[in-house]
Design goal:
The protein has a single domain, classed as Lipovitellin-phosvitin complex, beta-sheet shell regions, CATH 2.30.230. Strand 7 and strand 8 form a beta hairpin. The chain has 291 residues and is mainly beta. Strands 5-4-3-2-1-11-10-9-8-7-6 form an eleven-stranded antiparallel sheet. The chain is built from three helices and eleven strands. The protein starts with a helix and ends with a strand.
């Protein structure tokens, strides 16, 4: 009984010691560092137009290569990032169709951006490859999984297990529609993987946009005629969560998983004569460090 009690006390003290240890999270990014990731994303949902429900779905697979080019005295790094061997496959099944319609788009493009040790990304520049689909993933909704670490930002202080911090970042889920993604992050624990110590971060995400006005060029038009454009009014709610592994010793991101729930209301034209539609989507994704 005494031995069992002693072991229990030792176990409690070990847990307390780990919990009391403070960590400072920061990207290291030495020049010349190369990191490779593999991402898989699945989206499922439906669109409701004029009372007709259309099932929708898409899958995205891609490999991502990040290379640190330079590093300034303040720790901000210039980074190149390339999406290779990517593929987006979208499906929709219209009423009356026996089988869904599928469209496949290759994804091959690159970008450059700056990243601070705290994980704040700026000066992003897309470098499109003809037919590479950069326009499909250049919006901020995809940025969190397009380039590692964009969705993870750290406070300028030491953290203990259980500590939480908030971050806000601008995303652009649709061209011209900018909203603030609010993120509450928690340092939840420590895990050893292949001899490396990773800090575990969980995040809750939310964003809301109401009555956002966007001018849209109608399909099949040049956009120059008086009737070629319509005003699109959007309302959108995004909620979700993510988990990430961060190697504090190496100062780099490991694996990451996320789930996003998207509710979108759209009205084309005026309130009296406009066409209303709704879309709901659930996106799940994972990003794995492969090298």
């Amino acid at each position: 009984m005494r031995i069992r009690t002693l072991l229990s006390v030792i176990g409690i003290l070990c847990v307390a010691a780990v919990s009391a240890q403070a960590y400072r999270l920061a990207f290291s990014d030495p020049p010349g560092t190369e990191r490779n990731y593999k991402a898989d994303i699945t989206m499922k949902g439906s669109a409701d137009v004029l009372g007709i429900s259309v099932p929708l779905g898409s899958t995205v697979t891609m490999t991502m290569a990040e290379k640190v080019l330079t590093k300034n005295a303040d720790g901000t790094s210039s980074i190149s990032f390339a999406v290779k061997d990517g593929k987006m496959m979208a499906t929709a099944q219209m009423p009356g169709d026996d089988d869904p319609t599928t469209k496949t788009q290759p994804l091959n493009f690159s970008m450059t951006y700056n990243r601070t040790p705290a994980g704040k990304v700026s000066n992003l520049k897309m470098i499109a490859t003809p037919g590479g689909g950069a326009d499909l993933l250049s919006a901020g909704m995809g940025n969190e999984v397009q380039y590692p670490g964009q969705g993870v930002q750290f406070p300028d202080k030491e953290l203990n297990i259980g500590d939480a911090w908030d971050t806000n970042q601008q995303i652009e889920p649709f061209p011209g529609v900018k909203v603030t993604m609010k993120q509450t992050n928690t340092l939840t624990g420590v895990k050893t993987i292949n001899g490396k110590t990773f800090l575990l971060i969980s995040s809750d995400l939310s964003a809301t946009a109401k009555d956002v006005k966007v001018n849209m060029t109608l399909p099949g038009t040049t956009g120059t005629g008086a009737s070629d454009a319509q005003q699109l009014t959007l309302g959108m709610t995004i909620t979700g969560s993510s988990t990430a592994q961060f190697n504090a010793q190496a100062g780099e991101l490991g694996d990451e998983n996320f789930t996003l729930n998207i509710d979108l209301n759209m009205q084309v034209g005026g309130a009296d004569v406009g066409v209303n539609s709704k879309m709901t989507m659930t996106a799940t994704g994972k990003m794995l460090r492969v090298k």
